[in-house]
C-alpha cells in the first residue's frame, strides 16, 4: 500500500504541483484584486467626502474599555464628526450576550470625547462585517458612510459596502496595533465576504427600521 501510494505521487507529481500552486495563487490573488477594486475609495480623513455616517466596526473590548484597535477606529469617527464630514456615528458590534458588549464601551468613549448623545447610534447585532453593513443600509437607512477601520480590514469592509449599494469610503485608523497575522486572517474572511454577497445572505437579526436621521439615544438599550 505504501509503495502504491509513492508510485501514485511520482506519477502525478506535476499535476499535484500545478494544482497546489494554482490553489496558492487563487488564495493570494483574490484578496489583492479586492484591494485593487476599492483602492480609490480609501482616503485620508482630511479629504473624506461628506457622508451621513462614520461607521465604527466592532472589535474586542478589554475590561469594559475599547481595545487599542477599537479605540483607534473610534478616534477616526470622532475626527470626522468634529470636522463636519459626518453628521452621525454608528457603532456596530457583537452584543449577543450580557457578558459580551462591543458597542457600549465605544458609546462611553464617544461621549467622553464630547460627541452629542443624539448623534451616537448603536447597532447591537453587528455580529460580523457583512451583517453590520447590511443592517446599516436595511435597518438604519444609511445611504452614504465612511468606514473607520484598520488597513488589514478596510478593503473587505469597503468591498462589501459597495456591493450592497452603499456609497462608501474608508479611512484607515492610524496606529501600530495590527500585525501580519491580521492580514493572514483576512484571507478566509475575504472568501466568506464574497460568498455572503453572492448569496445575499440575510443577517440573523433585522428588526424594525431605525432611521439614522433620528435620535441615537433610542438605540442604546
Briefly summarize what is shown:
This protein is α/β, with parallel strands linked by helices and 221 residues long.
Features:
5-stranded parallel sheet; alpha/beta; 2 domains; Rossmann fold; two-stranded antiparallel ribbon; 221 residues; 47% helix
Give your account of this protein's structure:
This protein is of the alpha/beta class and 221 residues long. The protein folds into two domains: 2-37; 41-219, 3-Layer(aba) Sandwich (Rossmann fold), CATH 3.40.50. 47% of the residues lie in helices and 15% in strands. The chain contains seven helices and seven strands, in the order ααβββαβαβαβαβα. The strands form two sheets. A five-stranded parallel sheet has the order 5-4-1-6-7, with helices on both faces. It has a two-stranded antiparallel sheet with strand order 2-3. Strand 4 (86-92), helix 4 (104-112) and strand 5 (120-123) form a beta-alpha-beta unit. Helix 2 (13-38) packs across helix 6 and helix 2 (13-38) crosses helix 7 (180-199). It is elongated, with a radius of gyration of 20 Å. The model has no long low-confidence stretch (mean pLDDT 88).
Amino acid at each position: 500500500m505504501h509503495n502504491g501510494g509513492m508510485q501514485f505521487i511520482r506519477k502525478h507529481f506535476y499535476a499535484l504541483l500545478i494544482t497546489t500552486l494554482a490553489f496558492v495563487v487563487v488564495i493570494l490573488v483574490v484578496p489583492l484584486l479586492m484591494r485593487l477594486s476599492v483602492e480609490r475609495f480609501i482616503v485620508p480623513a482630511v479629504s473624506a467626502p461628506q457622508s451621513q455616517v462614520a461607521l465604527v466596526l466592532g472589535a474586542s473590548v478589554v475590561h469594559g474599555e475599547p481595545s487599542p484597535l477599537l479605540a483607534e477606529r473610534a478616534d477616526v469617527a470622532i475626527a470626522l464628526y468634529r470636522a463636519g464630514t459626518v453628521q452621525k456615528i454608528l457603532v456596530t458590534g457583537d452584543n449577543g450576550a450580557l457578558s459580551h458588549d462591543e458597542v457600549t464601551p465605544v458609546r462611553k468613549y464617544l461621549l467622553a470625547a464630547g460627541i452629542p448623545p443624539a448623534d451616537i447610534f448603536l447597532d447591537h447585532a453587528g455580529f460580523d462585517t457583512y451583517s453590520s453593513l447590511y443592517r446599516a443600509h436595511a435597518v438604519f437607512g444609511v445611504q452614504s458612510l465612511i468606514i473607520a477601520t484598520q488597513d488589514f480590514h478596510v478593503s473587505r469592509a469597503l468591498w462589501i459596502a459597495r456591493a450592497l449599494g452603499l456609497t462608501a469610503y474608508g479611512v484607515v485608523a492610524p496606529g501600530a496595533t495590527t500585525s501580519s497575522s491580521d492580514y493572514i486572517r483576512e484571507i478566509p474572511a475575504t472568501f466568506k465576504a464574497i460568498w455572503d454577497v453572492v448569496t445575499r445572505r440575510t443577517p440573523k437579526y433585522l428588526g424594525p427600521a431605525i432611521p439614522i436621521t433620528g435620535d441615537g439615544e433610542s438605540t442604546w438599550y
